[in-house]
Amino acid sequence: KSELGILYLNEFNRNVLTKIFNDSGIEFIPLFDCPISVYLWREHPLADRREISIEQLAPYPCISFDQGEENSFYFAEEVMSTYHYRQVIRVSDRATILNMMVGLRGYTLCSGIICEELNGDLYRAVPLRTEEKMTIGYIKKKQVPLSGIAQKYLEELKEFI
Asked: pTM (2 decimals)?
């Protein structure tokens, strides 16, 4: 329904999502590849590390977006969505994730791109020790040119990145 969407592909979801895109007349345009990062509160005990292993995260709750009962785990916002975490808290909004990062010393996994204008300087992204990568890109309808405002959005996005 939207003109464009920003999302990621990785080894786990690439084949399934590519098939859905092709079946739906949608194309994926890659913007960049990036490593996976751990997103956490700046006072978290692991926040000052150069990198964090998945084993070091075990004592802390992983906070993830609830995808609803109808959605496949291929559509998960977080990478490594099939990993068996010891503690998982599912939430429905970003503000709750941020609050739980502070109150419970929780974390989530992300691209490592943080917008301080949106979330302030209370959070850090630390590289996760893994070989897995994410390809961040956008989707749009095939053979349908983007509007001027969508093109401007992509220009601003590329400049920010």
From this structure: 0.79
